[in-house]
């Protein structure tokens, strides 16, 4: 396959997905979002597998990648519904942290234009060392930032799914045509002209 084909496009899409997943993983780590962290980690592994399969002409790996992209789209749709509070979901719940902590998205306190203010709670018994943090002035709510992240992931994954199916079909056709002309027969020519070695030896040593 030439460079300007679906194969090279899929390599580019996998690389783009890998970079986007690593960027998202960093911010999910900063926000202690354990469910997205696990999902991102698995996503990175499958994308690397798909990238390897595309480079090394391994259609089975690309099939695994294509199946995962469908799952990945579903996961990101769930994230969008979670932050937009669709279907009874609440962005303030501890679902994404497995109820381990009360952390929210890193963007909730560090979004564009956000200003964090800490108010001491020294007047409350038992909370002398704690402080209340309020965030004001955000130019964009953190939930919309998370929704944009997921939307980009969905868009790239859908395009990757289409190209993965196309590349798998091309690889399969090439393998079938190669097999048809005897490409996988290890000794295609020797079966025709091959003679027994003992007959050749007898012809060589016949008396004059």
Automatic annotation (TrEMBL):
> Which compartments does it reside in?
Cell membrane
The organism named in the record is: Platysternon megacephalum (big-headed turtle)
Signal peptide as annotated in the record: 1-21
Keyword Lipoprotein carried by entry? no
A GO cellular component term found in this entry reads: plasma membrane
The family database entries (InterPro entries) matched by this protein are listed as: Na/K-Atpase_Interacting
The UniProt keyword set, sorted, is: Cell membrane, Membrane, Signal, Transmembrane, Transmembrane helix
Q: What biological-process GO terms show up in the record?
A: regulation of sodium ion transport
Family statement drawn from the similarity comment of this UniProt entry: Belongs to the NKAIN family.
Lineage, top-rank taxon, reads Eukaryota
Q: Membrane spanning segments where? A: 34-55, 62-86, 152-171
Q: What membrane topology does the annotation report for this chain?
A: Multi-pass membrane protein
One Pfam family hit:
NKAIN
Q: Which PANTHER family does the record associate with it?
A: SODIUM_POTASSIUM-TRANSPORTING ATPASE SUBUNIT BETA-1-INTERACTING PROTEIN 4, T-CELL LYMPHOMA BREAKPOINT-ASSOCIATED TARGET 1-RELATED
Question: What's the protein here called?
Answer: Sodium/potassium-transporting ATPase subunit beta-1-interacting protein
